[in-house]
Amino acid sequence: MIIRNETEKKLLFTNGNIYTCDPQYPRCQAMAVHNDRIFALGDTADIRGLLKDGYDEIDLQNKTVLPGFIDTHCHAMSFGMNLGAWVGVHDAETIEDIKERVKARVQHLKKGEWIKGRGWCRGVFHDRMPTRGDIDEVAPDNPVVLIDSTGHIAIVNSKVLEMAGVDRTTEFSGGGKIDRDPETGEPNGILREMALYNLAWMKGPHPSEEDLVEAARQICEKAASVGITSLSLIMIPFPSEDEGRMGYSPSELKPFVTLRRNNELSVRVRYMMQAYRNWNAGDHTFLDHLIGLGLSSGFGDDKLEIGGIKIIDDGSIMANTAAMREPYATEPDMMGVLHFDQEQLNAMILKANENDFQVETHAHGDRAVDITLNAFEHAMNANPGKSLRNILTHARILHDEQIERIKKLGLVVNGVPGVNGWLPTRLAVEAENVGPQRAQLLSRLRTLIDHGVTVAGGSDCHPCHPYGPLHFIYRAVNSGNFSYEDPLTLDEAISLWTTNAAYVSWAEEKKGSLSCGKLADFVILSDDIHRVKLADIDKIEVEKTFVGGEVVWERE
């Protein structure tokens, strides 16, 4: 006979200021947790009656509690690698700052060894972007590639250009661009879209298994430290020996499985899988693999599951590569890049939806939004009655008629402006790129919400700086911080990271609010978010983060 040996967990949290985000019971003093679920909510005096049933009491001392935050769009492994194996440039504030970090890394490497990093924000450089000359000064003998926060533009040094065979005569026609010095015509080290991936990022060694596991561990700890209890993992490309060009591999999925197997996975992870391996028309490699295995959205458990299929159809307004209806104000010969045309996008989304996969499509520019809406409508018409809550992500430029279509089609919106998109510096760069008239159409979360569209607010962390929902909530409720529209209310901003995020993730029955029967995922804050001034919300700190009733992070 085999008997399961499991210690029953019974916790009673009392004397708290608990905001549940559940409209049926929005606020209470106490909460009982049985194993990993919320068992009861109420006043401290009433719930203390459960002590006789063996509950252990934890006095919250009037601290404020919110549901755990859900990050619905995070390039977690990229951030994790920046916290370890790569050069962390996400919080660099000047070109000299970037140079110093690269210089410090060079001192620990042999000649010819690669240096990679990502996350620098174009908006913090007031006069110009860094160029290959800047990096050459500190790393003449090591190939260096540093992707920006959006993932759509990079700085490389002369060593990388030399290894890629790029000179003043090189033309790139694969959906990207090699920038050149306007006076000499020489490549200046700035690469965009597929040029940066095919010519630079996909070169060099693949990260080791140890590096990847450590990156997964680091991002889980970082997420928990800012109150995130669930995150959707958006895949990024890594180089490998059998890929000579832009490509994805499942290598970043295994580290989280390893952590789970070792009982070290501290937050909940939802995989958003790329449909394709090499970002080519007709390449449905990963989608076909998943279908062949009989998998679909929702496969897994509360800790690790398949979320859906992610498709990237254009670039970024920061890089002038988002697909636009009209040319860019700062680059009149540029209308952006479409990675898939209408027929190709239709086929991919239709196949995914027919096989019960939710689809999330990255569309920054208004032209990309047009064909994405067409593709979602095509799939829905072919499958009447089937609702998979397809996700339109970024949608940086939205016209009124597009918002009406989003509502009519029943789509949900991942209102992620893009990494660092909640910062005024990024909004200023995007506004300059599209011109003053179209700038009024940037980040229309206020209008989307007013039209009844469900909007979630992930971080898009590649990484980004600063990182954390409290900072993003602060930006959303303060006028002029991420949009030209009116700010959100505090409850609306919180819902982007709780109830709405759970709905977008098909998880509203088990998380997003503190309700009886739901997972005991919650955060304890240093201050009452509903009572501090809106201008002081970003000063609030996360003191403890709980996942399934277990403390996964605690401020020292």
Descriptive account of the structure:
The protein is of the alpha/beta class. Among the domains are: 10-67 and 518-554, Urease, subunit C, domain 1, CATH 2.30.40; 86-201, Diaminopimelate Epimerase, Chain A, domain 1, CATH 3.10.310. It is 29% helix and 21% strand. It contains 18 helices and 24 strands. The strands form four sheets. Strands 8-15-16-17-18-19-20-21 form an eight-stranded parallel beta sheet. Strands 3-2-7-22-23-24 form a six-stranded mixed beta sheet, with helices on one face. β2 (17-19) and β3 form a beta hairpin. The longest helix is centred in the middle third of the chain and has 17 residues, at 209-225. Residues 1-5 have low confidence and may be disordered.
CATH topology heading of the domain at 86-201 = Diaminopimelate Epimerase, Chain A, domain 1
Terminal residue distance: 45 Å
Helix residue percentage: 25-40%
Shape by Cα distribution: globular
- In the predicted model, the low-confidence regions spanning at least 5 consecutive residues are 1-5
Radius of gyration: 23 Å
Notable features of this structure?
single chain; alpha/beta; Urease, subunit C, domain 1; 8-stranded parallel β-sheet; 6-stranded mixed β-sheet
Quick structural summary:
With about 550 residues, this protein is α/β, with parallel strands linked by helices. The chain has 18 helices and 24 strands.
